[in-house]
């Protein structure tokens, strides 16, 4: 009884902290989406209030769809993000399986080397990356972005997935080997289904920086054919006049895929985070 009494204030305090953090994190998103449905006068007159019949206006969305090729930018972002996620999860899971399953000289050093990729920002190598892409003829192509984002996401993917794969039962894998299964079959049919929560965690943590990135699209793929959503939104930023309706509408549309991904993978994401916490 006393233990429950003592734990109650801790529980209330923890929930209060989490609730406060949730409000702080969601506040900018709500403000952006809310103001995207207002007229310019409504945005500057009452930015913290919901749209009213007087201030409600879809001019931002009509401008985004009508001016500039926003649908094309959206498709580019979608192609880059999906392709990068596919390669990060595939190669990251394979590398994690190799590091966790096989013992060889340099195993620990290889894991440490990959962990350094988490601590050292990839943007420090921007000049070298640009020189490499120019020499390879990949400037102003989506391939350049996919390669960079795959390299950017692999260290975190290997780090997270290797810890989860170490928890997969050796008896299960050995039973598959006794039944004559190849290592690839064991990997794809036995191991991957058991680490799906961690795969969802990696997917969410990898997608958000890729989708929101402005740095590499601006440097490696600034042409009209390869612009992404974040780079396309810069069309409405001017030196003297800024179309805030269009910017807020573009940002609201750009937020949607991230929210949809979270709704789809939220259960797997929470399971992956909590299972890693109680390892």
TrEMBL record:
Compartments it resides in: Cell membrane
Segments passing through the bilayer: 12-34, 78-99, 111-134, 146-165, 186-211, 244-265
Keywords assigned by UniProt, alphabetized: Cell membrane, Membrane, Transmembrane, Transmembrane helix, Transport
Coiled-coil regions, chain positions: none
InterPro entries reported for this sequence: MetI-like (IPR000515), MetI-like_sf (IPR035906)
Organism: Mesorhizobium ventifaucium
Membrane protein topology class: Multi-pass membrane protein
Name of the featured protein: N-Acetyl-D-glucosamine ABC transport system, permease protein 2
SUPFAM superfamilies: MetI-like
Keyword Phosphoprotein: no
Family: Belongs to the binding-protein-dependent transport system permease family.
Domain of life: Bacteria
Pfam families membership: BPD_transp_1 (PF00528)
Domain ABC transmembrane type-1: 74-265
